[in-house]
Amino acid sequence: MRLQDKVALITGGAAGIGKATAVRFIEEGAKVIICDVNEAAGQASAAEIGATFYKVNVADRQDVQNWVDAVVGEYGRIDILVNNAGVLRDGQLVRVKDGELAGMMSEADFDLVIGVNLKGVFNCTQAVAPIMIKQGGGVILNASSIVGLDGNFGQTNYVATKSAVIGMTKVWARELGRYGVRVNAVAPGFTLTEMVQQMPQKVLDGMIARTPLRRMGETRDIANAYLFLASDEASFISGETLRVDGGIVVGTGLRIADCGLRIGRRVWTRTS
User: Fold this and answer.
1) Which one of 77, 191, 198, 237 is most buried, by most CB atoms within 10 A?
2) Which one of the listed residues 54, 158, 179, 226 is annotated catalytic?
3) Tens of pLDDT along 51-83?
4) Is 158 among the catalytic positions?
């Protein structure tokens, strides 16, 4: 087994890619601890897959520290951290109708996404890094997105966080490599999470049409990428962002608006 007896923390693990990653890690022998803000879903998922659950708000530094301290107190070490938790609050920077300002992204929506998707990654990594340094190594994996590489219409806040995560991944790979800590990111494409499955069929068809492999990604596809990067098979890989997107490249990406869907103010627990 590739992760036999490794202690792995996964944020946003109640559903979607986080849950799928927890399943794959457990299948490969890891002891998995998931966290999420959704306590009911987190407890149910943990019971279903054989993980341990903590309710944690990754945007709250003390909440994160309490979680990390509890895990170290129970298991004595942390071998893998997957920074998967994330939210969406989509909207245009400014929206104009008939030449007049008709709306704009609110400061609250901008701050929420920055707080979870960017500060949350910072909080968790800063709390775990000293543990990994002391024990002589570890693996940190960050959730980016193809939109963090290519941009996307109506996602100023989300794209900003996913681009920043790529930057932090490179910085931390440089800073922590001397201590045996590898840091990488995964950039999923259109992935069939529970949330995405609820979208209108014409939207899903549009996503598939714009993906060269002509299918949506499964959450297990992304989980397999995390598994590879967490394993010794990737022992000489650090500072990289792995696209898992079915072949989408700059210029062939999908704007949500192209498929006639406005996500609006929905909050997601990690998608892509």
Assistant:
1) 191
2) 158
3) 999 999 999 999 999 999 999 999 999 999 999
4) yes
